[in-house]
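Weekly structure sync, notes
Attendees: PL (lead), two postdocs, one rotation student
Agenda item 3: pending single-chain targets
PL asked that the sequence for the first pending target be pasted directly into the notes so everyone works from the same version. It is reproduced below exactly as submitted, 133 residues in total.
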Amino acid sequence: MLDENALEEQLAQARAALRDVSRTVAPRERVESVGEAADGRIRVTVGSDGRVSAVDLDPRVLREGSEQLAEEFRRAVNAALDGQDEAVTATEPMPDLAAMTATVERLQDQGLRQMREITLAVSETMRKLHGRS
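Predicted structure, written out during the meeting:
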């Protein structure tokens, strides 16, 4: 049979570990990202809001044909967006660890209370059965 004190100790350890994790996790802030193409002659900056905030063109790149310029511009934009995706992934919302801790505590208390009730009911049943013998 499961020892109630051992179960309570394991649940207390789990609760403490969850509290420790909630103190050490800090969300990362979004940052701007820059993509380059055409050997650095095209630079596109995507701001922390995910929108293009700057486009810098070296005048020499304008000598390229429109198709080449469009292709290089696309590469620069995609590189900047890829950098933004990496930054956004790092800032995905964290679960509410305080709420999770509160839920674990509530479940622990409820589980222990129910275990005590079951133990009392089993003990009472056993007492009655032994009393009939």
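Discussion points:
- The chain has a mean pLDDT of 81.
- The helical segments are 4-24, 66-90, 97-132.
Action: rotation student to compare against the earlier draft before next sync.
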